[in-house]
Amino acid sequence: MKGLVLYKGKYGATKQYANWVGEKLDATVVEAAALSSLLLQNYDYLVIGSSVYMEKLVLADWLKKNGDLFKNRKLFLFVVCATPSTDKVTQDRIISKNIPEAILANCSIFFLPGRLDLKALNWLDWLLVKFAGRFEKDPMKRKVLLNGINEVKKENITTLIKEIEAFALTDKLL
């Protein structure tokens, strides 16, 4: 089975994960803006990666615009953010606000820990993050906003890879 990894991020963590996934699965990796419906026809499944910025997927509008292209394909979506894996409420809110219902029906979603490098942010993003950090009540979230974090590690894709490989194996047996 042939897979295609599409991604869009803002500061590099999503691209890093996309490249690791593509390498592990021997899949083509393409920035989402370069997708064409002709390219899509050559693949059996899609892996889509998007970073989150203020609870909005950077690919949210793109997913809505291109949702029809994915109707009959298995999707694996990885979402890169600083939201802790234990914060299911925020994860559910991100999903409901950003992913069209038509896509959800055939989609497996994985949240991967991201990176917040305060030195890499543009001035507006830096200002917004610092402002949010000063008013954040949760001490763990406040610490991340004020000091940054880097949890981007290759082992974070293990569950995603296992599910994709299981899908490919099951589909070959059918």
Q: How would you state the average pLDDT, rounded?
A: 89
Oligomer: single chain
Number of helices: 8
- Name the CATH architecture of the largest domain: 3-Layer(aba) Sandwich
**Unreliable residue runs:** none
Q: What percent of residues adopt helix (DSSP H or I)?
A: 40-55%
Total number of strands = 8
Q: Please, how many domains?
A: 2
CATH level-four homologous superfamily name of the largest domain: Flavodoxin domain
CATH secondary-structure class of the largest domain:
Alpha Beta
Summing up helix and strand content along with how strands pair, one would put the structural category as alpha/beta
- The share of residues in extended strands comes to 15-25%
Gyration radius, to the nearest Å? 16 Å
Task: Please give a structural write-up.
By secondary structure, this protein is an alpha/beta fold. The chain has 2 domains: 135 residues, 3-Layer(aba) Sandwich (Rossmann fold); 34 residues, no CATH class. The protein is built from 8 helices and 8 strands. The two termini are 13 Å apart. The mean pLDDT is 89.
Task: List key phrases describing it.
alpha/beta, Rossmann fold, 8 strands, 2 domains, 8 helices, 174 residues, 6-stranded mixed sheet, single chain, 23% strand
Topology:
Blueprint: E1 3-8, H1 13-25, E2 28-31, H2 37-40, E3 45-53, E4 56-57, H3 60-66, E5 74-81, H4 88-98, H5 101-104, E6 107-113, E7 115-116, H6 123-135, H7 139-147, E8 149-150, H8 158-173
Helix pairs in contact: 6-7
